[in-house]
Amino acid sequence: MREPACTDVSAVRSGRRRALVPLRGLAPLRDLVWRVERATPPDRDRAIDALRALAIGGVVLGHWLVTALVLDSGAIRVASPLRYMPRLAPATWLFQTLAVFFLVGGYAAARSWGASAGTYRQWLGARLARLSRPVGVVLAVWSVTVAGMLAAGADNVTVTRLVKLVLSPMWFLVVFAVLTAATPLVARLHPMWPLVTVAVIDLVRYGVGGPSWVGAVSVLAGWLVPYCLGVAWARGALRSRTAGWVLLVGGAVGAVGLVLGAGYPAAMVGVPGAPVSNLDPPTLAAVFFGLAQCGAALLLLGPLRRALRRPVVWAAVALVNLSAMTIFLWHQSAMILVTALGLLAGEALPGLHTVPDGPAWVLARLGWVPVFGLALAACWVAFHARERAPSRKRRLANA
Q1: Are 158 and 76 in contact (CB under 8 A)?
Q2: In the chain, fewer beta carbons within 10 Å around the N or the C end?
Q3: What digits encode the pLDDT tens for the residues 64-93?
Q4: Interior/surface letters 184-194, b for 16+ CB within 10 angstroms, e for the rest
Q5: How far apart are CA 349 and CA 347, in angstroms?
Q6: For residue 78, what is the enclosing H or E element?
Q7: Sign of CA pseudo-dihedral 310, 303, 102, 219
Q8: pLDDT tier for residue 301 given thresholds of 50, 70 and 90
Q9: Is 54 helix (H, G, I), strand (E, B) or coil?
Q10: What global pTM score does this model have?
Q11: What are the residues whose beta carbons fall under 8 Å from the beta carbon of 206, sequence distance 6 or more?
């Protein structure tokens, strides 16, 4: 009997098979969808992977929409539309999704630690290997790129700015690695403690004019809050919809109250030239905003699980998860690549090289987003294999 292109799992178990989507003429895609569906363990919670994919997608789109590389007297400088159009700040609440990533990261790490049959060292090595391998590739490629640019006579300031743009997102990986290593200890920590720590740090910095370096504590404490929630979730807490609504409403009220009543920035991302950033380091407003995101993520679990019963949808989510770090690490390079190729046109292209100072720039930039996506796809083809772990380590990581 000829195997169908794509089959519902429940139909297979009952001996009945039916086509789920019309994929005639798309045999490779049909076969890929079917392979992903068959390879997925029946007890895997697909909604967790969907949340991770949404978090990565939000970060990528956010960076592409709020980062402009402007030609200025022969050099390139980094600008943000949020500086010229501050009314766009509320839009950052849709794309700053790091709290969801830390929530899912804490959940996955706690689950894998609880199921690990190896030692702590083996478990941690397997968890961190997926982060370190793709990072090494980015550093190697950009080392060669920088050498070539300097040899070709590129402006030192431009090279420095581009390298900083590529490397700046990696701070998140350092924090994530530290929190992952602390997972067995985090399991004993209530999320309220790191939240209070951030509040105290903000009071010292902004309330009594303390030194700015104390904010380094908030870099870990701020992201420890959603990570703690993820660990608690893995241990059986936060299972009710009430918990999701409490986090969503409480976090949203707290964030809005701090923005309107305490003078915190409305933008949940950094804005060049702004005196205060909600992300560098995370402020109490950013932490409350993260709580709201975590609540929304918990409330989305049901709808996501229903949607992911469709093998085509699940295959897309699974492929993003298999390449999450590759997508995260190369999305800025993809934008830089398109910007550099655009220079071949001989003039500044709207939305690509021009100052982000009006609605016309926003519309033009939206048109460039699919082009960035194609460039990122090319990077994925070239480098995603470095993210795959050997089978023995995959079992230990149990990601």
Answers
A1: yes
A2: N
A3: 999 999 887 767 888 999 999 989 998 899
A4: eebbeeebeeb
A5: 6
A6: strand 75-79
A7: positive
A8: very high
A9: helix
A10: 0.86
A11: 276
The sign of the torsion formed by the CA atoms of 242, 244, 247, 249 equals negative
Element (DSSP H or E) covering residue 105 = helix 98-115
Instruction: End-to-end CA distance of the chain: give it in Å, rounded.
Output: 35
Q: Is 35 exposed, middle or buried (0-12, 13-18, 19+ CB in 10 A)?
A: exposed
Beta strands in the chain (DSSP E): 68-72, 75-79
* 263 three-class SS: coil
Q: How far apart are CA 127 and CA 279, in angstroms?
A: 25
What pLDDT digit, counting tens, does each position of 21-44 carry?
Answer: 454 556 777 788 888 888 888 888
Which one-letter DSSP state was computed for residue 190? -
Cα–Cα distance for residue pair 170/34, rounded to 1 Å: 35
Which sign, positive or negative, has the C-alpha torsion 57, 59, 61, 62?
positive
CB 180 within 8 A of CB 127: yes
Q: Are 226 and 100 in contact (CB under 8 A)?
A: yes
Residue 213 dihedral angles phi and psi, to the nearest 5°:
-65, -20
DSSP 163: H
